[in-house]
Structure formats: structure tokens, C-alpha cells
Amino acid sequence: MPSTDHDFVSTLPSALRRLRDARPLVQNITNDVVMNFTANALLAAGASPAMVHAPEEASEFARIASSLVVNIGTLTAPSVTAMVGAAAAAREAGVPWVLDPVAVGATTFRRETVAKLLEEKPTIVRGNASEILAVATGVRAGRGVDADGASSEVADVAAALAKRTDSVIAVTGAVDVVTDGTTTWAIANGHPLLTAITGSGCAVTAIVGAFLGARVAPLEAAAAALVLVGIAGERAALDCPGPGSFAVRFMDALAAITPEDLAAGARVTRA
Ligand SMILES: Nc1ncnc2c1ncn2[C@@H]1O[C@H](COP(=O)(O)OP(=O)(O)OP(=O)(O)O)[C@@H](O)[C@H]1O
Ligand SMILES: Cc1ncsc1CCO
Ligand SMILES: [Mg+2]
């Protein structure tokens, strides 16, 4: 039975303080379903969101952003141009960036776009288990935008992918896995109601970007975001009648969680 990683958990309050002090400018090129929800989640967490996605300006903006979030949920040809251009600009300018490969296994268009984006060296890739498996194997996997695998089963695949791509890999599910290929954490925070609303995964990815933008180191940034969203989900679910009010309470909880709450509620073990 693995025990809590107290060394890491004790760093969580300073990571959240850093995010709220820095109020990082997080550029998002994300999907049409979750744009408003994502911007509000970033505000609630303490970041400053900017949904700047036009091909004409996305790469220019990426050079001045604190971090960049690229989410392929509702991909179009112009959005691919914006994403690849912004990711390249971020890499050149030393701006950290995070990739959410939504439903990457579903179509050739998504697989080819993710292959192009991986060439721009994302700092972190965050997906559900079927998405991370599809990225790792390059083959068709999973049904669509929702997960259908257990994250714990992909920990080895994620660690190998982290080594191969030199990125941190964050796999979400009932238990999340975060790995840089050497250190691997399992995070048991969260609530099933998070899967009953659209965009909770996209919000996690954006908040990973927020911690990165506050210059928290990648492995710690990914884990802190997963703990924050997980605890917010747990709080929001208390006496919650259903998904509608859960989404509202989730936003309230994200804003109300203190740095100390983060350390007190974290369930992080070293794998
Ligand atoms: N069964 C579960 N129990 C508790 N928490 C969960 C469960 N499944 C997912 N979560 C949490 O929900 C959040 C979103 O993860 P999920 O894997 O559902 O992302 P996703 O599939 O990309 O979602 P979406 O694409 O709909 O935004 C994460 O914080 C994760 O820890
Ligand atoms: C439902 C849905 N379809 C494309 S993106 C998206 C939001 C979850 O990622
Ligand atoms: Mg998703």
C-alpha cells in the first residue's frame, strides 16, 4: 500500500500561492464546447485567460503569454494552422505549453494534427487514458471525447511516452497519473460527477497551463492542477443534486480553495 508523498504535498500551498500572486496570462486555443467554461475555470483558479485563436494572431500572442494551452476538441483546418503556429512560437520564445489531444484516436485528422503538435515539443500532454494510449501507440483507440480505460493501467505507457517525447504526461481518470518518465505520482482526488459535465478535463488542462504560466516546474504543475480540480470536484459534489448545480458549485469551489486546503486534501502517492 503506497503512502502519501508528504514531500510533494508540502509544496502544494506555495504552488497555489505562486499561481494566485502571478495571475499568469494563459492563452487558449481550445474547443467551441468549453471555451466559456474554461475561461471561467481559469479565472476561478486565479489565472488570467485569453482565448486567442485566430491564425492571424495566435503565434504573435503566444510569444507574450505566460503559457499556452492547445486543445484539439473541435478541430478545423484554420485552427490547426493557429495551433501549430502558436506552439512553434511558444517553443521558440521559451513559453511553456500544454496539449490536450481530445479524441485523438478517433480520426486521421486528429492523429495527424497531434503528430505535428508533438514536433513542437509540448511541455505537458494531458489526456484521459484512451487518448494517452492513442498518442503513445499511434493507432486507433477509444471511442471519442470521453475515457474508457483505467488510468492506472496506462502508467507504464505514460512513463515510456514521457521519456520518448521529453514531456510530462498527465493521465486523468478515477485515479490520475502524472509522470516525467522517472517520477510517477498517482492522484486519487476527484469525484464521478466530474465526468457528468462536459469540459472538466479541458479545465484541468487549462489549469495545468496556469501553474506552468506561474513558473511551477512541469511535473509539479501537472500534479498541482489535478489535486486542485480533484478537491474542487469533491467539495462541489457534497449534497449536490445533479450535474447542473455541480458545474456552478465546481466553479465556486475552485475559487474558494486555499493553499492550505490543497495540502490538507491532497491524496498523492508515489508509484
Ligand atoms: N471516476 C472518477 N472519479 C473521480 N474523479 C474522476 C473520475 N473520472 C475522472 N475524474 C476526474 O475528472 C477530471 C477530468 O478527467 P477526465 O478523465 O474525465 O477528462 P476528459 O475525459 O478529458 O474529460 P472531458 O473531455 O469531458 O473534458 C479529472 O480531474 C479527473 O481526476
Ligand atoms: C463534447 C465535445 N466534443 C468535442 S470537444 C468536446 C468537449 C469535451 O472535450
Ligand atoms: Mg477531454
UniProtKB/TrEMBL annotation:
Protein name per UniProt: Hydroxyethylthiazole kinase
Annotated keywords: ATP-binding, Kinase, Magnesium, Metal-binding, Nucleotide-binding, Thiamine biosynthesis, Transferase
Keyword Disulfide bond found: no
Gene (name only): thiM
Catalytic reaction equation(s): 5-(2-hydroxyethyl)-4-methylthiazole + ATP = 4-methyl-5-(2-phosphooxyethyl)-thiazole + ADP + H(+)
InterPro entries membership: Hyethyz_kinase (IPR000417), Ribokinase-like (IPR029056)
Pathway membership, UniProt: Cofactor biosynthesis; thiamine diphosphate biosynthesis; 4-methyl-5-(2-phosphoethyl)-thiazole from 5-(2-hydroxyethyl)-4-methylthiazole: step 1/1
GO biological processes: thiamine biosynthetic process; thiamine diphosphate biosynthetic process
SUPFAM superfamilies reported in the protein's UniProt record: Ribokinase-like
Any one GO MF annotation of this record: hydroxyethylthiazole kinase activity
Organism: Labilithrix luteola
Enzyme superclass (EC): transferase
Essential cofactor(s): Mg(2+)
Sequence positions that bind ATP: 126, 172
HAMAP family: Thz_kinase
